[in-house]
């Protein structure tokens, strides 16, 4: 079920109202799912059903992405602010220290929630924030090129391309190792999500200085990296392990930057194991 929650957060400019869209499925221990930049909560659809058989699954559209409105004017998209916003969202949903799972930007946010003691466990799939400066520039350049391509294509062109495996590969092979597996409707929807998201540029601007440099000593952390990630290179997982020495580092064979589509069974198993 999709729902919108509105609440207030404290900002340097005072208290501001924020709204966030989420979907909730299943029952059991709560698991919050956070997508990456330019994506939306539907990125988790390949694994949601598997997880919901054992968990209370809450998939969130981050502020300024998917169906969630942008943050109010003057409120930054930096890591502390967005993490604080997600913490308040969890409070509003009655989630006391849920398990938090994130991909890319969502993985960085999951780790920050863990660092703040707001997560029971953290599972980070190809998390941002462990790059060198050169790797960051490469990733941001790739993301901007994807965004520009999405902005340039009329909807009928996107819909035609999504009907064929070759077209789905052209649209999504940067993030998926197996783009042919993605349904045509999902490819169209996520191309529109990338085109229409209001949080893209402010998030990239805030991300220029985003590095995760803190250990998370009191929360179990799992970091998983696709062997075919073309945006955040898998050697960044080794850096994550150096920063968080007790983290469990897992390789996802044959998976790209958004691994949920490439191998749903493997990713779901990693999440369920990490949240036990």
From TrEMBL:
GO molecular-function terms, A-Z: hydrolase activity
Residue ranges constituting the AB hydrolase-1 domain according to the UniProt record: 31-269
Residue ranges the record marks as coiled coil: none
Record carries keyword Transmembrane helix: no
Translocase in keyword set: no
Name of the protein this chain belongs to: Alpha/beta fold hydrolase
Keywords linked to the UniProt accession: Hydrolase
Organism name: Streptomyces albidoflavus
Pfam families recorded: Abhydrolase_6
